[in-house]
Amino acid sequence: MLTCHDVSSLVVDRLCDRARGQNTTVTCFYFDFAARKEQSATAMLGSLLKQIVSGMEAIPEDISRAFQEQKRAIGGREPQLLDIVKMLQTITSSQPTFVCIDALDECVAVHRVKILHSLKQILEKSPGTRIFITGRPHIRAEMERRLGGHVASVSLCPNKEDIIRYLRVRLGEDETPDAMDESLITDILEKIPESVSEMYVGQ
Amino acid sequence: MPHLGGLCGSPASIKKAEESKTPAFVQLPEILQPRTFNISSTIAEMSHSFNTNSFNNVSHYSYTVADDRSQLLTWLSPLEPRLRHRDIQERRIDNIGEWLMQTEEFRSWYDWSGEGEGDKAVLFGYGDPGAGKTFIRYRNKDYSWGEKR
Fold this sequence. Notes:
The complex is a heterodimer of chains A (203) and B (149).
Chain A: H1 4-19, E1 25-30, H2 41-54, H3 61-70, H4 81-94, E2 97-102, H5 109-125, E3 130-135, H6 140-146, E4 151-155, H7 160-172, H8 182-201
Parallel strand pairs in A: 1-2, 2-3
Chain B: H1 2-8, H2 11-27, H3 32-56, H4 62-76, H5 81-91, H6 104-110, E1 122-126, H7 131-145
Protein backbone atom coordinates (compact mmCIF):
# COMPACT_ATOMS: atom_id res chain seq x y z
CA MET A 1 0.00 0.00 0.00
CA LEU A 2 2.23 2.78 1.23
CA THR A 3 5.33 1.96 -0.68
CA CYS A 4 8.58 3.86 -0.73
CA HIS A 5 7.91 4.55 -4.42
CA ASP A 6 4.72 6.41 -3.55
CA VAL A 7 6.47 8.51 -0.93
CA SER A 8 9.36 9.29 -3.30
CA SER A 9 7.03 10.36 -6.09
CA LEU A 10 5.00 12.50 -3.65
CA VAL A 11 8.18 14.21 -2.43
CA VAL A 12 9.27 14.82 -6.04
CA ASP A 13 5.91 16.43 -6.84
CA ARG A 14 5.87 18.60 -3.72
CA LEU A 15 9.44 19.75 -4.40
CA CYS A 16 8.48 20.56 -8.00
CA ASP A 17 5.48 22.59 -6.73
CA ARG A 18 7.75 24.64 -4.49
CA ALA A 19 10.50 24.98 -7.11
CA ARG A 20 8.14 26.44 -9.71
CA GLY A 21 9.18 29.92 -10.77
CA GLN A 22 12.55 29.58 -9.07
CA ASN A 23 15.93 28.66 -10.40
CA THR A 24 15.72 25.27 -8.69
CA THR A 25 15.92 21.87 -10.36
CA VAL A 26 14.31 18.67 -9.07
CA THR A 27 15.69 15.37 -10.30
CA CYS A 28 14.57 11.84 -9.51
CA PHE A 29 15.64 8.25 -9.94
CA TYR A 30 13.78 5.02 -9.14
CA PHE A 31 15.80 1.89 -8.56
CA ASP A 32 14.15 -1.35 -9.53
CA PHE A 33 15.64 -4.75 -8.86
CA ALA A 34 14.21 -6.02 -12.17
CA ALA A 35 16.19 -3.34 -14.06
CA ARG A 36 19.42 -3.75 -12.10
CA LYS A 37 21.51 -4.56 -15.18
CA GLU A 38 20.78 -1.23 -16.88
CA GLN A 39 20.87 0.83 -13.68
CA SER A 40 24.63 1.24 -13.37
CA ALA A 41 26.21 4.06 -11.36
CA THR A 42 27.19 5.87 -14.58
CA ALA A 43 23.77 5.56 -16.22
CA MET A 44 22.02 6.57 -12.99
CA LEU A 45 24.13 9.69 -12.35
CA GLY A 46 24.05 10.45 -16.09
CA SER A 47 20.26 10.44 -15.94
CA LEU A 48 20.33 13.02 -13.11
CA LEU A 49 22.57 15.21 -15.26
CA LYS A 50 20.27 14.64 -18.23
CA GLN A 51 17.28 15.90 -16.23
CA ILE A 52 19.11 19.07 -15.20
CA VAL A 53 20.42 19.75 -18.72
CA SER A 54 17.06 19.09 -20.40
CA GLY A 55 15.55 21.92 -18.36
CA MET A 56 18.19 24.40 -19.50
CA GLU A 57 17.89 26.60 -22.56
CA ALA A 58 21.55 26.32 -23.51
CA ILE A 59 23.60 23.22 -22.95
CA PRO A 60 26.63 23.98 -20.73
CA GLU A 61 29.86 24.41 -22.67
CA ASP A 62 31.81 21.58 -20.96
CA ILE A 63 29.06 19.02 -21.62
CA SER A 64 28.61 20.09 -25.23
CA ARG A 65 32.37 19.89 -25.83
CA ALA A 66 32.65 16.44 -24.25
CA PHE A 67 29.79 15.24 -26.45
CA GLN A 68 31.39 16.54 -29.66
CA GLU A 69 34.78 15.11 -28.71
CA GLN A 70 33.49 11.59 -28.08
CA LYS A 71 32.05 11.52 -31.61
CA ARG A 72 35.57 11.34 -32.98
CA ALA A 73 36.07 7.92 -31.44
CA ILE A 74 34.93 5.08 -33.66
CA GLY A 75 31.38 4.19 -32.72
CA GLY A 76 31.39 7.00 -30.15
CA ARG A 77 32.47 6.76 -26.55
CA GLU A 78 30.16 6.48 -23.58
CA PRO A 79 30.60 9.04 -20.81
CA GLN A 80 32.76 7.87 -17.92
CA LEU A 81 31.64 8.06 -14.29
CA LEU A 82 34.37 10.58 -13.46
CA ASP A 83 33.26 12.90 -16.30
CA ILE A 84 29.63 12.71 -15.20
CA VAL A 85 30.53 13.50 -11.58
CA LYS A 86 32.63 16.49 -12.65
CA MET A 87 29.81 17.82 -14.82
CA LEU A 88 27.33 17.33 -11.96
CA GLN A 89 29.66 19.14 -9.56
CA THR A 90 29.86 22.13 -11.90
CA ILE A 91 26.17 22.29 -12.74
CA THR A 92 24.89 21.85 -9.15
CA SER A 93 27.25 24.60 -7.96
CA SER A 94 25.56 27.07 -10.27
CA GLN A 95 21.96 26.21 -9.42
CA PRO A 96 20.12 24.74 -6.41
CA THR A 97 19.32 21.09 -7.07
CA PHE A 98 17.19 18.46 -5.37
CA VAL A 99 17.97 14.80 -5.99
CA CYS A 100 15.40 12.15 -5.02
CA ILE A 101 16.56 8.56 -5.16
CA ASP A 102 14.03 5.81 -4.59
CA ALA A 103 14.76 2.29 -3.29
CA LEU A 104 18.53 2.59 -3.14
CA ASP A 105 18.57 -0.87 -1.55
CA GLU A 106 17.46 -2.30 -4.92
CA CYS A 107 20.66 -1.07 -6.56
CA VAL A 108 23.47 -3.62 -7.06
CA ALA A 109 25.95 -3.30 -4.16
CA VAL A 110 29.01 -2.41 -6.29
CA HIS A 111 27.10 0.36 -8.01
CA ARG A 112 25.66 1.58 -4.73
CA VAL A 113 29.19 2.08 -3.39
CA LYS A 114 30.08 4.14 -6.48
CA ILE A 115 26.88 6.17 -6.30
CA LEU A 116 27.30 7.04 -2.61
CA HIS A 117 30.93 7.97 -3.22
CA SER A 118 29.94 10.17 -6.17
CA LEU A 119 27.17 11.87 -4.18
CA LYS A 120 29.69 12.65 -1.46
CA GLN A 121 32.01 14.20 -4.05
CA ILE A 122 29.14 16.30 -5.39
CA LEU A 123 28.18 17.49 -1.89
CA GLU A 124 31.77 18.46 -1.15
CA LYS A 125 31.82 20.79 -4.18
CA SER A 126 28.21 21.84 -3.93
CA PRO A 127 27.01 21.68 -0.30
CA GLY A 128 23.66 23.31 -1.15
CA THR A 129 22.51 20.21 -3.05
CA ARG A 130 19.70 18.38 -1.22
CA ILE A 131 19.40 14.60 -1.53
CA PHE A 132 16.37 12.53 -0.49
CA ILE A 133 16.89 8.76 -0.48
CA THR A 134 14.42 6.00 0.37
CA GLY A 135 15.14 2.35 1.06
CA ARG A 136 14.91 -0.50 3.52
CA PRO A 137 16.46 0.26 6.92
CA HIS A 138 19.40 -2.12 6.45
CA ILE A 139 21.29 0.25 4.11
CA ARG A 140 21.23 3.06 6.66
CA ALA A 141 24.58 2.17 8.25
CA GLU A 142 26.25 1.91 4.85
CA MET A 143 24.89 5.32 3.82
CA GLU A 144 26.01 6.98 7.03
CA ARG A 145 29.47 5.49 6.65
CA ARG A 146 29.89 6.52 3.00
CA LEU A 147 28.28 9.94 3.18
CA GLY A 148 30.01 11.04 6.36
CA GLY A 149 28.02 13.29 8.68
CA HIS A 150 25.60 14.43 6.01
CA VAL A 151 22.72 12.04 6.75
CA ALA A 152 19.51 12.58 8.74
CA SER A 153 16.86 9.83 8.90
CA VAL A 154 13.09 9.65 9.06
CA SER A 155 10.74 6.67 9.24
CA LEU A 156 8.22 6.27 6.40
CA CYS A 157 5.79 4.07 8.32
CA PRO A 158 2.20 4.95 7.43
CA ASN A 159 0.09 6.75 10.03
CA LYS A 160 -3.53 5.98 10.86
CA GLU A 161 -4.94 8.52 8.36
CA ASP A 162 -2.87 6.97 5.57
CA ILE A 163 -4.26 3.54 6.36
CA ILE A 164 -7.85 4.81 6.46
CA ARG A 165 -7.37 6.60 3.10
CA TYR A 166 -5.93 3.45 1.62
CA LEU A 167 -8.76 1.27 2.94
CA ARG A 168 -11.44 3.65 1.67
CA VAL A 169 -10.02 3.51 -1.84
CA ARG A 170 -9.63 -0.27 -1.78
CA LEU A 171 -13.09 -0.88 -0.32
CA GLY A 172 -14.48 1.35 -3.06
CA GLU A 173 -12.89 -1.01 -5.59
CA ASP A 174 -14.52 -4.08 -4.03
CA GLU A 175 -15.83 -6.40 -6.71
CA THR A 176 -18.62 -7.79 -4.50
CA PRO A 177 -20.20 -4.61 -3.08
CA ASP A 178 -23.38 -6.46 -2.04
CA ALA A 179 -21.49 -8.32 0.63
CA MET A 180 -20.34 -5.03 2.12
CA ASP A 181 -22.77 -3.03 4.22
CA GLU A 182 -22.18 0.24 6.07
CA SER A 183 -21.63 -1.33 9.47
CA LEU A 184 -19.01 -3.69 8.08
CA ILE A 185 -17.20 -0.77 6.42
CA THR A 186 -17.28 1.19 9.69
CA ASP A 187 -15.99 -1.85 11.52
CA ILE A 188 -13.13 -2.34 9.05
CA LEU A 189 -12.14 1.32 9.10
CA GLU A 190 -12.11 1.23 12.88
CA LYS A 191 -10.30 -2.01 13.62
CA ILE A 192 -7.71 -2.43 10.88
CA PRO A 193 -5.93 0.93 11.29
CA GLU A 194 -5.66 0.27 15.04
CA SER A 195 -3.99 -3.08 14.47
CA VAL A 196 -1.63 -1.67 11.84
CA SER A 197 -0.66 1.25 14.05
CA GLU A 198 0.05 -1.15 16.90
CA MET A 199 2.26 -3.18 14.63
CA TYR A 200 4.26 -0.16 13.49
CA VAL A 201 4.60 1.27 16.98
CA GLY A 202 6.43 -1.91 17.88
CA GLN A 203 9.08 -1.34 15.21
CA MET B 1 31.88 -0.93 -31.33
CA PRO B 2 28.47 -2.06 -32.50
CA HIS B 3 28.21 0.61 -35.20
CA LEU B 4 31.23 -0.63 -37.09
CA GLY B 5 29.32 -3.60 -38.42
CA GLY B 6 26.63 -1.40 -39.90
CA LEU B 7 29.11 0.88 -41.62
CA CYS B 8 31.76 -1.50 -42.83
CA GLY B 9 30.06 -4.86 -43.19
CA SER B 10 28.27 -4.13 -46.44
CA PRO B 11 30.86 -3.17 -49.16
CA ALA B 12 31.70 -6.78 -50.01
CA SER B 13 28.07 -7.69 -50.52
CA ILE B 14 27.44 -4.51 -52.53
CA LYS B 15 30.38 -5.32 -54.76
CA LYS B 16 29.08 -8.82 -55.28
CA ALA B 17 25.64 -7.50 -56.21
CA GLU B 18 27.17 -5.01 -58.63
CA GLU B 19 29.18 -7.71 -60.37
CA SER B 20 26.12 -9.84 -60.85
CA LYS B 21 24.22 -6.85 -62.19
CA THR B 22 26.91 -5.74 -64.62
CA PRO B 23 25.52 -7.58 -67.66
CA ALA B 24 22.11 -6.00 -67.07
CA PHE B 25 23.66 -2.53 -66.89
CA VAL B 26 25.50 -3.03 -70.12
CA GLN B 27 22.25 -3.72 -71.88
CA LEU B 28 20.47 -0.65 -70.46
CA PRO B 29 20.15 2.50 -72.61
CA GLU B 30 23.20 4.63 -72.05
CA ILE B 31 21.28 7.53 -70.61
CA LEU B 32 20.27 5.52 -67.53
CA GLN B 33 23.79 4.69 -66.41
CA PRO B 34 25.01 8.23 -65.61
CA ARG B 35 21.74 8.85 -63.75
CA THR B 36 22.31 5.91 -61.45
CA PHE B 37 25.81 7.14 -60.79
CA ASN B 38 24.68 10.71 -60.19
CA ILE B 39 22.14 9.73 -57.58
CA SER B 40 24.74 8.03 -55.42
CA SER B 41 27.18 10.91 -55.77
CA THR B 42 24.42 13.35 -54.82
CA ILE B 43 23.68 11.31 -51.70
CA ALA B 44 27.37 11.38 -50.82
CA GLU B 45 27.42 15.16 -51.21
CA MET B 46 24.28 15.60 -49.16
CA SER B 47 25.57 13.45 -46.39
CA HIS B 48 28.87 15.34 -46.45
CA SER B 49 27.16 18.73 -46.22
CA PHE B 50 24.84 17.45 -43.48
CA ASN B 51 27.81 16.34 -41.41
CA THR B 52 29.59 19.63 -41.95
CA ASN B 53 26.53 21.54 -40.91
CA SER B 54 25.83 19.52 -37.82
CA PHE B 55 29.39 19.98 -36.61
CA ASN B 56 30.12 23.57 -37.51
CA ASN B 57 27.03 25.45 -38.50
CA VAL B 58 24.35 24.07 -36.21
CA SER B 59 22.71 27.40 -35.52
CA HIS B 60 21.59 27.70 -39.16
CA TYR B 61 19.59 24.48 -39.05
CA SER B 62 17.13 24.27 -36.19
CA TYR B 63 16.17 20.67 -36.92
CA THR B 64 19.81 19.71 -36.60
CA VAL B 65 20.11 21.52 -33.27
CA ALA B 66 17.09 19.69 -31.86
CA ASP B 67 18.45 16.42 -33.18
CA ASP B 68 21.87 17.09 -31.69
CA ARG B 69 20.36 18.07 -28.34
CA SER B 70 18.35 14.89 -28.07
CA GLN B 71 21.40 12.86 -29.12
CA LEU B 72 23.43 14.55 -26.40
CA LEU B 73 20.78 13.83 -23.77
CA THR B 74 20.63 10.17 -24.76
CA TRP B 75 24.41 10.04 -24.68
CA LEU B 76 24.41 11.34 -21.07
CA SER B 77 22.17 8.40 -20.15
CA PRO B 78 19.77 6.09 -21.96
CA LEU B 79 17.60 5.81 -18.82
CA GLU B 80 14.29 7.69 -18.49
CA PRO B 81 13.43 7.92 -14.78
CA ARG B 82 10.76 10.55 -15.43
CA LEU B 83 8.63 7.97 -17.23
CA ARG B 84 8.73 5.78 -14.15
CA HIS B 85 7.85 8.81 -12.05
CA ARG B 86 4.77 9.49 -14.13
CA ASP B 87 3.75 5.85 -13.85
CA ILE B 88 3.91 5.84 -10.04
CA GLN B 89 2.31 9.28 -9.84
CA GLU B 90 -0.76 8.00 -11.71
CA ARG B 91 -1.25 5.01 -9.42
CA ARG B 92 -0.66 6.87 -6.17
CA ILE B 93 -3.55 7.43 -3.71
CA ASP B 94 -4.03 11.16 -3.06
CA ASN B 95 -2.58 12.63 0.10
CA ILE B 96 -1.09 9.43 1.47
CA GLY B 97 2.25 10.25 3.08
CA GLU B 98 1.59 13.98 2.99
CA TRP B 99 2.48 14.19 6.70
CA LEU B 100 6.13 13.58 5.84
CA MET B 101 6.46 17.16 4.58
CA GLN B 102 5.37 18.40 8.02
CA THR B 103 7.95 16.47 10.02
CA GLU B 104 10.81 18.26 11.71
CA GLU B 105 13.30 16.09 9.81
CA PHE B 106 11.90 16.98 6.41
CA ARG B 107 11.57 20.68 7.19
CA SER B 108 15.11 21.12 8.41
CA TRP B 109 16.37 19.17 5.39
CA TYR B 110 14.35 21.35 3.02
CA ASP B 111 14.98 24.73 4.68
CA TRP B 112 18.72 24.67 4.24
CA SER B 113 20.81 27.74 4.70
CA GLY B 114 23.62 26.33 2.58
CA GLU B 115 26.15 26.73 5.35
CA GLY B 116 26.97 25.50 8.83
CA GLU B 117 28.79 22.47 10.17
CA GLY B 118 25.76 20.52 11.31
CA ASP B 119 23.96 20.78 7.97
CA LYS B 120 22.38 17.50 6.84
CA ALA B 121 22.23 17.53 3.07
CA VAL B 122 20.89 13.97 2.82
CA LEU B 123 17.56 12.76 4.21
CA PHE B 124 17.08 9.01 4.36
CA GLY B 125 13.46 7.84 4.52
CA TYR B 126 13.40 4.22 5.59
CA GLY B 127 10.60 1.71 5.38
CA ASP B 128 9.79 -1.70 4.01
CA PRO B 129 8.20 -1.31 0.56
CA GLY B 130 5.98 -4.39 0.82
CA ALA B 131 5.12 -4.65 4.50
CA GLY B 132 2.00 -2.49 4.57
CA LYS B 133 0.32 -4.25 1.71
CA THR B 134 1.05 -7.77 2.93
CA PHE B 135 -0.13 -6.92 6.38
CA ILE B 136 -3.43 -5.41 5.25
CA ARG B 137 -4.19 -8.51 3.15
CA TYR B 138 -3.38 -10.73 6.08
CA ARG B 139 -5.66 -8.79 8.39
CA ASN B 140 -8.51 -8.83 5.89
CA LYS B 141 -8.26 -12.57 5.67
CA ASP B 142 -8.35 -12.87 9.44
CA TYR B 143 -11.36 -10.65 9.55
CA SER B 144 -13.43 -12.63 7.08
CA TRP B 145 -12.75 -15.80 9.01
CA GLY B 146 -13.80 -14.15 12.22
CA GLU B 147 -10.49 -15.10 13.80
CA LYS B 148 -9.18 -11.79 14.99
CA ARG B 149 -6.01 -12.17 16.96
